[in-house]
Amino acid sequence: MSARIIDGKAFAATVRGKVADHVARLKSDHGITPGLAVVLVGEDPASEVYVAAKHKQTVEVGMASFEHKLPADVSEADLFALIDQLNADPNVHGILCQFPVPDHLDERAVVARIDPAKDVDGLSVVNAGLLASGEKGLVSCTPLGCLMLLRDQIDAMSGLDAVVIGRSNLFGKPMAQLLLQENCTVTIAHSRTKDLAAVCRRADILVAAVGRAEMVKADWVKPGATVIDVGITRIPHPDRPGATKLLGDVDFAQVSKVAGAITPVPGGVGPMTIACLLANTLTACCRALGVTEPEGLTA
Ligand SMILES: Nc1nc(=O)c2c([nH]1)NC[C@@H]1CN(c3ccc(C(=O)N[C@@H](CCC(=O)O)C(=O)O)cc3)C=[N+]21
């Protein structure tokens, strides 16, 4: 048997379409254009590519995109001054500082400086706490994207066993909270978990976010399970010199023979991350205006 391939690229396009419809309505009914500010510190080539993709898609859905590139040696004070200015700017509804930032800057302090109402990455202590308490906040984009894919794939998540491999604040913890909210029985596994393969084999929903290429093998997966691969490891292309190739945390060739459904890499979770960033910016804008927020784009 072979698994259904979950087309995250196509799903992300439908999410962006919904966002674009609501953006058009905000413009016509309220004269407001939602705005996203992206701050990039330094010149990491991978980050430049992501930030360019974010800019392009922000403009495509009709939002305003504000890019701020700062030198790698920018002081914390100067970075904070920019964030303060964006916090105060009524045309900016979402703020994202691309990670990683150079070592002399503290990511947690950067996130803490962003107004929680504009924290479209959902990384602030306030938004993490709101999610953990089951209250309305902004949810980290990648877990939100995975939730949307899972809701689309699975009619009834209630009561299913879900295993999340990875416990980061950016992904593993919020993903676990979202699955719990869907009434799954949730296990957060990580590098110290005993007999990881056996733990994973219990999962009806297996979400891999460890950052180790192709670690999840076929005998870790319950036949018929839904497998979500959050890993992105870039390696030199085996056949094409100079080119690169992306690998997930799941050994796709093996696992796709056992799973019921699986996300590919690329074309799975990755495109959903940016779509959800746009969805979060729209949500933040609607809340700032006090107008009804769109359905199906939030947790
Ligand atoms: N503050 C912050 N928030 C983030 O959300 C954030 C960040 N920093 N730093 C870097 C990571 C990485 N990330 C991705 C976004 C899109 C794809 C994506 O679209 N991937 C495509 C194509 C990838 C390609 O071909 O290069 C795919 O998987 O199909 C992947 C990864 C967001 N991140």
Automatic annotation (TrEMBL):
| GO MF annotations in UniProt | methenyltetrahydrofolate cyclohydrolase activity; methylenetetrahydrofolate dehydrogenase (NADP+) activity
Q: Which reaction does it catalyse?
A: (6R)-5,10-methenyltetrahydrofolate + H2O = (6R)-10-formyltetrahydrofolate + H(+); (6R)-5,10-methylene-5,6,7,8-tetrahydrofolate + NADP(+) = (6R)-5,10-methenyltetrahydrofolate + NADPH
A GO term (biological process) for this protein? L-histidine biosynthetic process
Q: Which Pfam families match?
A: THF_DHG_CYH (PF00763), THF_DHG_CYH_C (PF02882)
Q: Where is the Tetrahydrofolate dehydrogenase/cyclohydrolase NAD(P)-binding domain?
A: 140-287
Q: Which residues form a coiled coil?
A: none
Q: Which residues form the Tetrahydrofolate dehydrogenase/cyclohydrolase catalytic domain?
A: 6-121
Example GO CC term: the record gives: cytosol
> Pathway listed for it?
One-carbon metabolism; tetrahydrofolate interconversion
Database matches in SUPFAM superfamilies: Aminoacid dehydrogenase-like, N-terminal domain, NAD(P)-binding Rossmann-fold domains
Q: Where does NADP(+) bind?
A: G166, R167, S168, I232
Its Enzyme Commission number(s) read 1.5.1.5, 3.5.4.9
Q: Keywords in UniProt for this one?
A: Amino-acid biosynthesis, Histidine biosynthesis, Hydrolase, Methionine biosynthesis, Multifunctional enzyme, NADP, One-carbon metabolism, Oxidoreductase, Purine biosynthesis
How does the record describe its quaternary structure? Homodimer.
Q: Which HAMAP family match?
A: THF_DHG_CYH
What is this protein for, i.e. what is its function?
Catalyzes the oxidation of 5,10-methylenetetrahydrofolate to 5,10-methenyltetrahydrofolate and then the hydrolysis of 5,10-methenyltetrahydrofolate to 10-formyltetrahydrofolate.
What protein family does this chain belong to? Belongs to the tetrahydrofolate dehydrogenase/cyclohydrolase family.
Q: What is this protein called?
A: Bifunctional protein FolD
